[in-house]
Amino acid sequence: MNNSYDGVRKALFGLSALDFDGATVLDVGCYRGSNAQYLKNNFNEVFYVGVENDPIALSEMDSHVDEVLDIDLDFFSAEVLVKQTERRVYDIVILGDVLEHLKDPGKLLREIKKVTDENSTLLVSIPNVQYYETFLMLFIGRFPRRARGLFDKTHLRWFTKREFVDLVRRDYQVVGFKRVFRLIERPSRINRLVPVFLPFLWILAPFFTFQMYFSLKKR
Questions:
Q1: Helix (H) or strand (E) holding 218
Q2: What are the residues facing 49 on neighbouring strands?
Q3: How far apart are CA 114 and CA 128, in angstroms?
Q4: Distance of alpha carbon 132 from alpha carbon 135, whole angstroms
Q5: The pLDDT of residue 2
Q6: What spatial distance separates the first Cα and last Cα of the chain, rounded to whole Å?
Q7: What pLDDT does residue 5 have?
Q8: DSSP characters for 136-186?
Q9: H/E element, 123
Q10: Percentage, residues of the chain above pLDDT 90
């Protein structure tokens, strides 16, 4: 289990100004379920279902999680989800830094589509491989592999904005998008400089985008 992924996704939640009051939330790859406590403390009558299969995370699951399902996401199916929860539609689905770890992320998205309707929203965060450091490392003949972050060695898939939109366009429409800028990978005050100079060099925005947030609606 990588603890760096176990945090509340406040910025992602605010992407489409969603009202979580009374919502049934499916958090796919929820780790310890950190989002559950935040959502329940800030919104009314949230029903939170988490999906996770890391044994350590499951043993330390947050008490605010209403239902937790032990499912390997490479074998995730809507049929199994419905059978275990008896819920056929989720209002909000959270996919926080999940898709890049899967063998076939498109399959997971197609299965999730089966448990959403036209009013449902998918919130997705995903790293951006077009980040400038990728090119610097390739220039010296290396592909970066690290314990966490954009170059997490457990990543199986890599996305740019265009690649992700191509992946989802058949089943979903993108209704919200935000770039998370960084000058260096680790969290630092120096990253605050990026939004200052990018308005003057907007063409460079994809190369300083460390992470991408999307909100999706079912077609």
A1: strand 209-218
A2: 26, 67
A3: 27
A4: 6
A5: 54
A6: 34
A7: 62
A8: HHHHTT----BSSGGGBTT------HHHHHHHHTTTEEEEEEEEEE-SSSS
A9: strand 121-127
A10: 72
Give the residue ranges of DSSP H helices in the chain.
Answer: 10-13, 34-42, 55-59, 78-85, 105-113, 132-139, 161-168, 194-197
Query: Cα–Cα–Cα angle for 131, 136, 142, nearest 5°?
Result: 110
* Tokens of residue 217, six digits: 């609606």
The amino acid sitting at 139 is F
Encoded tokens for 174: 């993108």
Q: Which residue has 């945090």 as its token pair?
A: 7
pTM: 0.90
Q: What does the pLDDT read at residue 53?
A: 94
Q: Which two tokens stand for residue 49?
A: 């279902």
Tens-digit pLDDT profile for residues 162-201: 999 999 999 999 999 999 988 777 777 777 777 777 776 7
pLDDT in tens, 120-162: 999 999 999 999 999 998 999 988 777 777 888 889 999 999 9
The domains located in the chain, with CATH, are 3-218 (3.40.50.150)
Residue type, 55: P
